[in-house]
Amino acid sequence: MPTRPDTPATEAPFITRDRYEAFIAIARDRITTRQFDPAYHVPRAHYEMILEAARHAPSGANAQPWFYVVVPEAETKQKIADYFVEEQRARAKLKMKFPTPDYRGLATAPGVIVVGTDFRWTRAFPVLGDGSDLDRMYQQNAERILLQSVAASTMSAHLAAAALGYNVWWITAIGQEMAQKAMKPLLGIPDELSVIDIMCFGPPSAKGTYKRWKKSLPEIMNWGRFDPANHRTADEIETWIRDQRHRVLYRDATQID
Ligand SMILES: Cc1cc2nc3c(=O)[nH]c(=O)nc-3n(C[C@H](O)[C@H](O)[C@H](O)COP(=O)(O)O)c2cc1C
């Protein structure tokens, strides 16, 4: 059973616990799958319901710097999957030691939405625009604001898909220059815009899916001051990457020793 904070003795009348319970079930049960049931067809209304959630996300300066391209054609999905498989092969030679997943599953995804942005929207955030060192610092933060905004919208879309009963897959292995060049012409995306990630969703394949390991509440929640117990040394992080990363990525939480 997941840990539950205690219910306070008295609660303000505007608190809606039943809405929270419905929401936390969606947040908890949102699960990544990388292999879908290819026979399933996503109705257009579901794409609209998912992106309706994305539309209401918060964003820096309310600039809403995101756009979404729905990819309904099997042929285009296959081309995107082919690109990823190819990139995965090239990456294997670079010896990054990252446990890359099998991107062939992308072609089986009933729902595919490409998430994009326009980095020129960083101008809407606090920047000086004079090329100074100070400006570079603000510019760096402006990019963070932009990416956080797109992620906020994307997460709303993922939760909406999970609320509908779908499994999801968030793919970011697309930021690199080469991937951008390959992806944009396929979807008619103008050159000055950027593809940020791909959202896949649908029912899982017959193999099913599983809940992955999550940190406990005390491991992420620091009360008043940062808890030193939550601090990891560089060595500890390296050890985690070497010994744990592949387990938490591709294994059921109950199977982690
Ligand atoms: C920002 C972000 C980037 C991700 N990039 C990839 C990716 O490129 N390829 C992939 O297979 N999964 C990717 N994922 C999915 C994660 O691997 C997955 O969310 C994580 O293992 C936890 O599993 P869960 O979603 O089932 O809780 C990404 C997720 C996020 C939020």
How would you summarize this macromolecular structure in one to three sentences?
By secondary structure, the protein is an alpha+beta fold.
Mind explaining what this structure looks like?
The protein folds into 2 domains: 32-209, NADH Oxidase (3-Layer(aba) Sandwich); 210-257, no CATH class. It is an alpha+beta fold. It has 8 helices and 4 strands; from the N terminus they run ααβαβαβαβααα. The longest helix has 32 residues, at 133-164. The protein binds flavin mononucleotide. Flavin mononucleotide (FMN) binds next to β3. Flavin mononucleotide binds next to β3.
Output the CATH topology of the largest domain.
NADH Oxidase
CATH architecture of the largest domain: 3-Layer(aba) Sandwich
* Principal-axes shape call: globular
Q: How many DSSP E strands?
A: 4
Share of residues in strands: 5-15%
- What's the pLDDT, averaged over the residues? 92
Task: List unreliable stretches of 5+ residues.
Answer: none
Q: What is the string of SSEs from the N terminus onward?
A: HHEHEHEHEHHH
CATH class categorisation of the largest domain: Alpha Beta
Largest sheet: 4 strands, antiparallel
Oligomer status: single chain
Radius of gyration: 20 Å
The CATH superfamily of the largest domain bears the name NADH Oxidase
Bound molecules: flavin mononucleotide
Order of strands in the sheet with the most strands?
1-2-4-3
Tally of domains: 2
Distance between the termini: 18 Å
Put simply, the count of helices is 8
Structural class from helices and strands?
alpha+beta
